[in-house]
Amino acid sequence: MSAHGDIRRTPGHASAKLHFLRHLVEMTLVMMVGMVTSAAVFLSAIGLQVDEALRQYPVHFVLVQALGMTALMVVWMHRRGHAWRSCSEMAAAMIVPAVPLVCLRLLHVIGGPICGAYCALTIAAMILLMVYRRSDYGMGAAVAAPPRGASV
After folding, report:
1. Alpha carbon 18 to chain centroid, angstroms
2. What is the pLDDT of residue 136?
3. Angle formed at CA 50 by CA 46 and CA 54, multiple of 5 degrees
4. How far is CA 141 from CA 77, 138, 148, in A?
């Protein structure tokens, strides 16, 4: 393969990496907004500070976080032009990591807050899904254009 051939492929490859990283950062920020918003609502409803809520209601806290960030992520992904299949897969990547943690906590196999472990697992699950479906997340069109008929 000639050096000229490698040069021609580099911009496309770099562009795909850039779109992949852009989507990763964008979705991480959306997840954080969803988590902060849902935590604020939950904390207001139960009248506790974060550290107390994490200790007293670790399962509830994680479930609220999972639903809050998943709902916002699905809305944002669909708005950015992703197909429902991609939105559903990413939603599963956000919910599935909660299942074993919640079960282990309810069975008293693990103790204490589980929110930190849950957050780490969701980031890992999101990255794994994005790598597995890199053709969906490395393309500029899926993250650059709103769906047809959507107002901007």
Report:
1. 18
2. 82
3. 85
4. 12, 9, 12
Give the Cα separation of 44 and 21 in Å (integer): 34
- Tokens 């979705």 correspond to 27
The token pair at 64 is 């609220």
Amino acid occupying residue 138 = G
Q: What percent of the chain has pLDDT over 70?
A: 83
Q: What are 78-118's pLDDT values in tens digits? A: 999 999 999 999 999 999 999 999 999 999 999 989 999 99
**How many CA atoms does the CB half-sphere of 87 hold within 13 Å?**
16
How many Å apart are CA 66 and CA 94, to the nearest integer? Answer: 6
Question: So where are the chain's domains?
Answer: 12-144
